[in-house]
Amino acid sequence: MATTNAIEVNNLVKRYKKTKTNAVDGISFDVKKGEFFSLLGPNGAGKTTTISILTTTLAKTSGTLKLAGFDVDKNASEVRRNIGVIFQKPSLDENLTAEENIRFHAILYGIYPFAPFYSLMPKDYKDKLNELGELLGIKDELGKPIKSFSGGMKRKLEIIRSLIHNPKVLFLDEPTSGLDPEARKTLWNYLKEVRAREKMTIFLTTHYLDEAEDADRICIISKGKIKELGTPTKIKSKLLDEYLIIGAKDNLKLETELRKHKLEYKEENGLYVLDINGHSAQDLIQMIKTKLTTLKVHSPSLEEAYIDLIESEHNEN
Amino acid sequence: MKIKHEINAIATIALRDFTKLLRDRMRLVTSFIFPVIFIGVLGGSLQSNLAADAGYNFLTFVFIGVLAQTLFQSTAAGIISLIEDRENDFSQEMFVSPISRYSIIVGKIIGEGLVASTQTVGIIIFGIVIGVPFGLTDFITLLPAAAGAILLGGAFGVIVMANLSNQRTANQIFPFLIFPQFFLAGVFNPIKNLPPVILQLSRISPMTYPVDLFRSIYYLGKPEYDKVVLFSPAFNVLVISIMFLIFISIGTYFFVKNERNR
User: Fold this and answer.
1) Which CATH architecture group holds A5-235?
2) Which residues in B lie closer than 8 A to residue A93 (C-beta atoms)?
3) Residue A13 near residue A61 (C-beta atoms within 8 A)
4) Chain B partners of A147 at a C-beta cutoff of 8 Å?
5) Is the Cβ–Cβ distance between A79 and A56 less than 8 Å?
6) Which residue of B has its CA nearest to A100?
7) For residue B139, what are the CA distances in angstroms to A228, B113, B136, B148, B214?
8) How close A61 gets to chain B, by Cα (Å)?
9) Strand partners, A9
């Protein structure tokens, strides 16, 4: 039976040996074919654990997982054939050239037979390599050891390498950690290009909210549990708590007026905080006739809302 | 098709280790330092002080021992580095690629064996320079013994690695498992006569057999043979084969079983 899901995760639990709590605590989600799915959460939320289980390098404790229709435990080899992985820690061999890193990958995936030298590789490989090198603008550097490459360049090389076996799902585990803002931006532009060209499913983990905002859907996890799952817009409207802060010389008069309009408010340091949700700020202002000395609209960014969510989570324990 | 793919993968993994060594000049140089100290300083001082009583040349004795020890230890250490590598560098790629876990181990043993062999080339040159009698015939007759030392070292590495969960434990435990073997195997010291307890330990120490195999071949037909050699070449080959089969099968079984269970 053909499935439209690239990834299916059902009630996944992972408890590491010699630990008392679950690193991943019963999460379930699906990722559709061609979707850009982002797993977002603070450090230690269970992102890398989840991605390691999905990419077959870590055994789960319980739950069921399917990738490209294959069971991750029973058909690990088929799963591996269908995925590309960009690891959190660089996975390039610093002593090898860029070309050797790519060649060794291609041979491990059975795309080409073994050859000890570049010159002995088939023409098809050389063409593909040159095409990718050109795309990256490092065609002339392919024969050089990657020690001399910048962090951003290395990341791009890893992406190129992971694409050489045409994976159905590309996993990116915090791909921009350790990169400066400019390198981050370049990398994202490149990834968008790749995605538009290859039309593959992308599974990203990140703790940067702005990176997740481009995703089709975001899944926020914290302490191994799913907190929110939906489109960025949906999550935004759910998370964002807008309110109005007002104050007047004659606070008594203002308070009477608020009560008269049956507006709910909280008093904080001589100011009144009114929930906007369900109204617009303008509606509220128009109801109030008392002369105001303070008027502020609080509209947090998604980043702030995300931090609030994670922090409130933190304080519960 | 499947087998061809695995063989290609094994060759790639082995070539990577070898290429890495050739590119890493620092490692090439430092890998000679210990053997040179062992042979030059330890062998030299023993030769000057004890040779007259012992009745054989200590420099040569230590030199042959260090050849076997280097092949054994270097291969074992290389295999154990897989623990660290599995969360670093290119090895992560090996573990997510669609190849058999057995191919990873075989490729790694061959690769680390090539690395160890390259290191012994420098030791042989040093030995010849300081006057150890070592000719082409010795080199050729010792090649099969070298294969034995590499395979047993590799298998020893696999069984140690399979039972260690992380690199920190590995770094702490490996010296304890390897350094006593230097002395138990008699790399520098004669072990012809030993107190009972140490004799037992010496006989269960895996490194004893490659070291003795090297000497049993090198000293074959020479007057010192009875003074330095413990067992016949055939007996050494037998013990090495048995230990190899036990280590590699148990080690690989546990490695494959535990690799994803953390």
Assistant:
1) 3-Layer(aba) Sandwich (3.40)
2) 16, 20, 89-90
3) yes
4) none
5) yes
6) B16
7) 68, 17, 5, 14, 11
8) 9
9) A29, A65
Pairs from A231-234 (Cβ < 8 Å, separation ≥ 24): A232/A302
Q: Do B20 and A96 touch (CB under 8 A)?
A: yes
Q: How far is the alpha carbon of A186 from chain B, nearest alpha carbon, in Å?
A: 23
Interface A:B, Cβ pairs < 8 A: 93
d(CA A254, CA A268): 14
H-run or E-run covering A171: strand A169-173
What pairing do the DSSP bridges indicate for beta strands A70-71 and A24-32?
unpaired
The residues facing B74 across adjacent strands are none
Prediction pTM value: 0.81
Task: Using CB atoms, pick whichever of A56, A57, A104 lies closest to residue B16.
Answer: A104
**Contact state of B15 with A116 under an 8 Å Cβ cutoff:** yes
Q: Which of A93, A109, A110 sits opposite B16 (nearest CB)?
A: A93
Best residue of B1, B4, B12, B258 to probe chain A, by most A CBs closer than 10 Å: B12
Which value, to the nearest 10 degrees, does the dihedral of the CA atoms of residues A161, A167, A169, A172 take?
-10
Q: How far is A224 from chain B (nearest CA, A)?
A: 17
CATH topology of domain A241-299: Alpha-Beta Plaits (3.30.70)
Residues in chain A within 8 Å Cβ distance of B165:
17
- Render each residue's pLDDT in chain A as its tens digit; 317 residues: 456 799 999 999 999 988 999 999 999 999 999 899 999 988 888 999 999 999 998 899 999 999 999 999 889 989 999 999 998 888 898 888 999 999 999 999 988 999 888 889 999 899 888 887 877 777 888 888 888 888 888 888 888 888 888 899 999 998 887 778 887 888 788 888 878 887 889 999 988 888 888 889 999 998 899 988 999 888 877 777 778 889 888 888 888 888 888 888 888 888 888 887 667 778 888 888 888 898 988 877 777 777 777 777 666 55
Contacts of A84 (CB under 8 A, 6+ apart): A162, A163, A165, A167, A169, A170, A171
A82, A168 in Cβ contact below 8 A?
A: yes
The ipTM, to two decimals, is 0.81
What's chain A's Rg over C-alpha atoms?
A: 25
What ranges do the domains of chain A cover?
5-235, 241-299
